[in-house]
Amino acid sequence: MSNEQLPLALISGGTSGIGLATARRLHGRYRLALLYAQNGQRAAEAAAELEGAKTYALDLTQADLIEQSYAQIEADFGVAPQVLINSAGSRGSGRYLLQGLDLEDCARLMELHFFGSLRLVQKVLPSMYARRSGSIVNLSSVSAQGGYKGVIGYAESKAAVECFTRNLAMEVGHRGIAVNCVCPGLVATPMTQPFQEGYPAASVNAPL
User: Fold this and answer.
1) Known catalytic residues?
2) β-pairing, 83-86 with 54-57?
3) DSSP letters of 82-118?
4) How crowded is residue 128: how many other Cβ atoms within 10 Å of its Cβ?
5) pLDDT, tens only, 127-173
């Protein structure tokens, strides 16, 4: 199969961390459209490593920009994505204890993790419905399952992703579209760099 005949995978956060690792696994079996937020150098390095991949700078909190970028992706590849991986994420300010919580930061995390994923799903669904096939994978977090200290705001935004995944799977499964959620623990990525040193492999929280 020539490269032009390969299906297209759209990966948000695809030039770093888990998204980039996923792109590496899919490279050669899919054409790749990789979304990134700000780091142009990292995006250029990813495009150089993954021959044929195209990168797109996109703020997933801006609905109008998603509209423009998605139209450009379809124009560049001549096909709609058959796979969507919502991997874009942010740790925000990193202040997750309730007394020091920045509510505006919480809102930004919800806007990125939940609404950003939702907006991309809305873009890919029409073509998946028409083909009666497709795969959507959303990245949540083990923190979304509750019982962790110092994750308020971040965890809730990821819990919304998890709930969204379950409901979406029920809504679109009859059209042959698979929807799944992955909930990693602490993974060594640029986003988690501040937490990697001195963080125990497993911690015990003891609520009263």
Assistant:
1) 154
2) unpaired
3) SEEEE-----TTS--SGGG--HHHHHHHHIIIIIHHH
4) 23
5) 999 999 999 999 999 988 887 888 899 999 999 999 999 999 999 99
